[in-house]
Amino acid sequence: MPELPEVEGLALDLAGRLTDRAIVRVDLAAFSALKTFDPPLSALSGALVESVTRHGKFLDINAAGLHLVLHLSRAGWVRWRDEVPALPPRPSNKSPFAARVVLDDGSGLDITEAGTRKRLAIYVVRDPLEVPGIATLGPDPLEDAFTIDVLGRILEDAGRSQIKGVLRHQGTIAGIGNAYSDELLHAARLSPFKPSNSLTDEELQTLFDAIKQVLGEAVARSRGLHAADLKGEKKSHLSVHGRAGQPCPVCGDTVREVSFADSSLQYCPTCQTGGKLLADRRMSRLLK
């Protein structure tokens, strides 16, 4: 799933390609992806793109006061085309195409979603806050307003909720998903199941520093990359996420995995749990 650094990279890349170009039309191939009806997609025809920005994991294309907002969800992505095909993508349950944005110079943007579980969402709104997921976003962890005191209050308010779930909840902190929550906790040397309100002052400071550094460095690496290169850049710099069975780059221990019904997490026992293994079940506890 694209998270804060990749969506920031997409916004920067697309801003350079779309800004000051007029949208000719938006071809919709997956009708279930469109979550709004007023304004209609046709209202974007002829609109000049003014900016491309990010709200958490939402991509916002501002065109003459209308906002084409994309949430790529788990398997969505965008693909730039220097020249779009003459025929629009045909609606099909088996096709990865969700929509295509066609620009006035013949270039365009394909919006796709792999797999059968279709969760990608497209909105056309007059104000981004009309999108429910944006209206309820927590603070952005890379903004100056996100301080250690803000993080401390978030974790304290979460009580004994497991810290991984708190970090990736978009209404609590915007933009952190499954992958980067694993990476942040590894960098901070914290168990993913540690109660949120149990951190010492030193652990809180370490986690705060990890959030700013890991996400900040990932965003910096994403700047200047084309959309096609962002996924590979992310994967090549992960320390534990998606690396179960491989050696931890910090201590050399084997990276372990906990699987859930529709997701998984990865961690290093030596770095994060004092060498103990986490039980591989939903209500996991440290094995004794």
From TrEMBL:
It catalyses: Hydrolysis of DNA containing ring-opened 7-methylguanine residues, releasing 2,6-diamino-4-hydroxy-5-(N-methyl)formamidopyrimidine. InterPro entries: FPG_cat, FPG_N, H2TH_FPG, Ribosomal_uS13-like_H2TH, Znf_DNA_glyclase/AP_lyase, Znf_FPG/IleRS. One of its GO terms (biological process) is base-excision repair. Belongs to the FPG family. It comes from Nocardioides mesophilus. Residues 2-120 form the Formamidopyrimidine-DNA glycosylase catalytic domain. This is Fpg/Nei family DNA glycosylase. SMART domains: Fapy_DNA_glyco, H2TH. The lineage of its organism: Bacteria, Bacillati, Actinomycetota, Actinomycetes, Propionibacteriales.
